[in-house]
């Protein structure tokens, strides 16, 4: 049965996952350079071994208030269109292997910002994992729709 | 000699690459004979080979490609259509070019490769496009007598000797001592040729490398090697990883406190830093690398054209990323050749015009506003706008209507359009209207720009603006709102410290901040305000970086100036570029990311302040000659601003003890000569923050329409005489404008209007209060 590996992480107590093939690495970092005038979803820039990486605040992307960047945050570095972008998350979870059969399209009740970023849901034993579209999650040019998680 | 060896080597590598592409293009063209784009591309390739072979004095190659170019030119311009015959002829030409290149590679000369047959074949197509396919056997006949050495039996020793010599001697004679490979199957099955040749593609390069390794003479001469830029990128990334690991080790070791380990770590630390620096530098090369070949180009070309041209170069050491350098090379050569060919006149013409017989061609390279600018400037004939316009019309590049709306600068820019040429006759050097088109395309491909500026009779300047992706630049680092920003040093004229004590301060004109720099008004841009950061509430002890961009000078107000350092410019991703204020990002000494400010875009933001400052400056100038009424003005200071009040409205200057100011409702009053005098604070009128008060406050008693008001100011500065023109443009807020009085920006105040603007009910309510008091 075809299956896929997901790197999981939590944002606002919700479990998310991205295809592990897209994840370059995960690291904790705390010194971000703010980018005035940039969209609020751009948490800041940081130096990853000589590369300037933009950190995207997933909370903002999900329509939540921005994260306090003075507290160290976890960075999930994903590769989007040959470019590295960091997704700022609360907590890192395990890498889990899931059968494609467990995949379901996002429920109709899912609203607003979540709906834009989610490609589907996986039912785990005790909770739901939302599969994130890394490209859309990293895209800060799209205005964040108003509306909260249902 | 070594330089020429290099040129030939590069010419060969490039041409082989180009030819492979050409084969594919020609075959594709046969399928789609109408594709102008494809034809233009083929045409350019051949043109490039022709140009280079011309100055390397490979005459057969030049004649051959010239013939091919003529046919292509007709095809491109739609004078005739592509048909199998012309395709065969062109492919045969490509094959012969290949043969010639092989011969050059092996022997350093063109050998005995027969070109006449192919030229005849190509020419036949030009004269009569529908001519039957020429005898394919023809080209075979000529070289048939030649020996046919196997690839493995290349005469290496001969080559090593022959190549540099050949270059020197080439213009005089073509060395023919070495046999060449027979152009066996080439013209027979031209269409299949590309397929057969394709796997051979890397061959020329391999053999070149091989020889470099085996031949001591070359390897000494050739101290550099071609390295794939991707490999350098990989190296760069690896070094980055190493730096991070080093940092972790350094941190770990400091906790262990083992002296031996500490020393080793120290060494590791240094070596890593040096390695990082070196790897970074591998990608950077001075522009001299491509300039060094130009004196020869200019010399040969001017010689051939009977002109005298002196070549001057400025800024040879300007460094550019290797890949950018590569991209700039061809356009630069084109422009230089063009300047010598079309720009600079012959000695006779120059003398007749009263110019020195020798023309001057100047190359300049420098950093400006985050770009590298390369200028090619000649003191030649200049571009004739009329002639450009006429040609553009004749060629259908523009319509008469479009032309009528164009400025002369725009008309000159038409020379960049494909298929445009103003040359009176087609010369062998340039002038098929291909050069400028190539220049523009190539430069724009790397995100740069080309423009041209020309004065008829005086000369022409071509400017290449090249982005500095990955370039290392000098930058000034400043601090503003707890973050650091880098400003490209090229745009920085000077730094000014605004000392709170010295009285030199930031002033305001119509609300726009300006600074008086040596008597001239400098419009200011506050970085914190521009970036939407919390604005500091005092202009004391700040720095002004005086910047220059887009022909505009302005000051950038920052909290602190840190230092100047060399930074590596990292491009920003699209999402940040849209903001518009940043030219890129960089990593500063401690590893943090700093944003690089885009000076031109800040300059645009300074526009408003600049206009205000210009107006104020103009007022100053205008007022003098006008000789209007001399007006006496009272100058009062408030905070850092100065305000002028017409003196004939002022009845007295008073000093009131603070405790005598009393309050009636929300108003302040003072008892004065048995009257109650309403008190107005200038600070609140102007919306300034309140000033520290002493025991007494200076006040201007001001009377208008029978009503008196005490205007409390911070300080009475002076009484001056000045020419003030009658102002009709009274603003509602009572500030009637500004002028430079005693070299300081001073705002002219209409007190009554100012009061009404701040408090519309002031006069009515005050009269009630004062009247009742008087009555009592």
Task: Provide structural commentary.
The complex is a heterodimer of chains A (150) and B (776). With 150 residues, chain A is mainly beta. Chain A is 10% helix and 49% strand. Chain A has a 6-stranded mixed β-sheet with strand order 8-1-2-11-10-9. In chain A, a hairpin with a 2-residue loop joins strand 4 and strand 5. The longest helix of chain A is centred in the C-terminal third of the chain and has 6 residues. Chain A starts with a strand and ends in a 12-residue tail after the last helix. The C terminus of chain A is likely disordered. Chain B is α+β, with helices and mostly antiparallel strands and 776 residues long. Chain B has 5 domains: 220 residues, HPT domain (Four Helix Bundle (Hemerythrin (Met), subunit A)); 54 residues; 182 residues, Histidine kinase-like ATPase, C-terminal domain (Heat Shock Protein 90); 127 residues, Beta Barrel (OB fold (Dihydrolipoamide Acetyltransferase, E2P)), CATH 2.40.50.180; 149 residues, CheA-289, Domain 4 (OB fold (Dihydrolipoamide Acetyltransferase, E2P)), CATH 2.40.50.180. In chain B, 43% of the residues lie in helices and 25% in strands. In chain B, the strands form 6 sheets. Chain B has a 6-stranded mixed β-sheet. The longest helix of chain B has 30 residues. Chain B is elongated and about 120 Å long. Chain B starts with a helix and ends with a helix. The chains are: A mainly beta (150), B alpha+beta (776). Chains A and B meet through strand 4 and strand 5 of A and helix 11, helix 22, strand 17 and strand 18 of B. Chain A: This is CheW-like domain-containing protein. Chain A: One of its GO terms (biological process) is chemotaxis. Chain A: It comes from Planobispora longispora. Chain A: It holds the Pfam family CheW.
